[in-house]
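User: Before I run my own analysis I want an independent prediction to cross-check against. Here's the chain; please return only the structure tokens and, at the end, one sentence I can use as a sanity check.
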Amino acid sequence: MKRTIILYASALAVLIVLLKQLEYRYFIKDFSFEFYAGVIALLFTVLGVWVGLKLTKRKTVIINKLVEDFKVNENTMRELGISGREYEVLKLIAQGYSNQEIADKLFISLNTVKTHSSNLFVKLDVKRRTQAIQRAKEMALIP
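Assistant: Structure tokens:
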């Protein structure tokens, strides 16, 4: 009984191998261009993803080191009369947060953020957020 099962299993295995070889040969002969074009397309896709990841890799080590070495010019802050809360708002503006996001982050109302921003603009003698960031960087208030 075992011998018959082994014989049939072996015969089926040999037949499956032969059928797969025939299928492979038929596939390569009839679709050789498509097969090779697909392999080349796959290789270029993998290469493109790899190069894209290498080119867009972020380098934060230098930025973090610059931020760690930065010292706030407290004399200028006192001269301008910038309060601690206004300074927090200025840092969040520099990080790109909107007024609503600043309000949520500092647990204050939107109108309070707008008031602090307006006070900062007057104290820094600017009209826009981008100008405030630039002026604060020039005065060594933010990194």
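Sanity check: The chain has a mean pLDDT of 81.
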